[in-house]
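S.,

Sequence below, as promised.
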Amino acid sequence: MKIILPQLSFNEKLDEFDFWITPSLGDITNSSRYKEVQSLICTLIDIIGEATNQFEKFEGFTPGKIGQSIVNHVNVISPEERVSKISALATFLFLVTGKSDNNCKCQFPLFLRDVSRVSAFPKVNSIKGNKTLAETEIPREIKSDRMAKLVSDLNGFPQKQLEILTQYISFIVDSYQYLRSFWSIGRTYFEMKKVGFEKDFLQPLIVFQVRGSVSASGGHEPEDSLRDRMIEWGLIPNIDFNNSDIIITDAASKAVVPDTMTATETEITVEVPIEEDDSPLEIVEKVEEVIKNKTRAYDFVLPFNVEGWNQKVFIQCQFYAGDSGSVSHKNVDQIRTSREFVKTKRADPIFLEYIDGAGYFSSLWGDLKKILAMQDTNDFFQVRTAVIKLRSKLQELGFLTPLEVVHAWALKNGSLAEIVEYLLADGYAENEIQRVLKRPSFTVNEDQLEVNSEIIDLSRKYLLLDFIAVKGQAFSESSKITGALLVPAFGKYFGIRMEDITGNIISEAGKFKEEWIQSGQLLKDIQFLTDNGWVVQR
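The prediction came back faster than expected:
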C-alpha cells in the first residue's frame, strides 16, 4: 500500500523526533554480553569451588591452586569448551583486580622476561595430529584469547600447561590483597548460592566488567533491529541490503573505492606521518587515528546488490542513549565530508539519517538540529518509525519489497492480473514487479498468486499499520485524543479513532476481512503494533 509522506516543517520534524524517541535499547543486564559473562563466571567459580571445598579456607589458596583446579577440569572436555573456560578465568581475574586485557597484553611479556625470568614462550606444533612441544621467542603482546588458546593446546603437556597458566594468574593477581579479593568473592558466592542470590551478588561486578564492551557493541543494536525489520519486509541480506558497513573515504584523502562500493572490496589508502623513533604501537595508533578522521561508514546502502538497480539510499545510524566521552561532536562535519564524496560517485544520492536515543534529546540536541537542517538530508527515521518512513522512501524510489506484494495479494484476493495492475498503479515498473514475483515466497498458479503461509501473519499486521497511516487524520490537540491509534511521519498527532477502523479499514481488507471480523484477530494485531511501539494508543 503506497504511503505518501507529507513535507513536514523543521519544527514538526523535531516534534516527531521527541514523540517517537527510543531513549535506550535496554539495560546492560539484558545484553547478550552480560548474560554470557555471567554464565562463564558462575561456571568458573563452581569449578574452583569443587577443588577448594567451596572456598572453605584461605590458607593454601594460591595461584597454583587456582591453576591446578582449572587444568584438572579443562583437560577432560572438548577444545572449544577448554578455550571458553580459560577465557572465563581471564575475565574473572580482570573483574577481581580491575585490570584490563589492553594493559595486561603489553605487560605480561615483560613479567615473563623480568620476573619469571623465562627466555622462551611455549608453542605446540601439530603434524598429522601428533603434537610436539616447542619454544619460541616471547611475543611483544599476549592477549587473553591467545593465552586461552595456548593453555588449551597444552593439554597434552600438563606440567608446562600448569606452569604457564600459574604464571599468568600470578601476574594478574600480583598482590596478597588481590588474592584475598579473589577468595572473598568465591566464598561469598557460595554463601549467596544457599539462598539463591549468587547471580545478584555478582551483578555489580559483572556490570562493571562488561560496561565498556556492551557500550561499544551497543551501537550495533539499532542496526540489527533495522535488519530484522527489512527481513520482515522480505528483503534478503547482502542482496537487497548490506550486512556490514560500507566505508566511504573523505574526498581529501587518497582512496580507492570500486564502483560497486561493497564492504569487502573497498580499499583505503591514507598518508600517515611516521617518525624514526615511533614505536610499533604508536604507528598503529597514528594509522587508526588518520583512518578514523578520514572515513565515515554508511551503515546501509539500498538497494545494495540488486540486478538492475544502482545504489541510491545512503543511511548512517547514530544512536546515543547518553552523552559519554566517546560521543564526538565531529559527527556533523564527518557527515558533510562523506556526503560530498558520495556525490562524486553516485548521481542524486538520497541521504537518510537513522538517528535516535536520549542523547539526542538532551546534550546532542544541537547536533540533531544541524543534521536535520542540512540541505541534503532527505529525511530521518527512528527505531520505531522505520516501519513507515523507510518503507515509504523505498516505495517512492520504486523499489518493490515482497511485503508490498503480499499486501496486494490480500487486497486483490490473489488475482495475479489485479495484483500486477494494483502495483503498476502504485508506481512500480513492470520489470520490478516481475523481479519480486520470482522470489521463493511466491508461486504463480495460472491466474492466481500463491503466498508462502509463513509470511502471511506478519504481513497482515503490517497491512493494518499501513491502513492506519493511509486512512488516518491529524488531531489538533492531544488532550482531545481518546480511543485512537497514532502513527509517525504525518505530524505530531496523526492516526485513526478505534471506532473508525470497522468502516474505514476492515471493509477494504480483502483476504483479511473475515479474519479481522470473526476471530478477534484485529485486537491481537493492534496489540502487536502497540507492543512494538509502531503505533501509540491513546
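Residues 198-218 form the longest helix (21 residues).

Coffee later?
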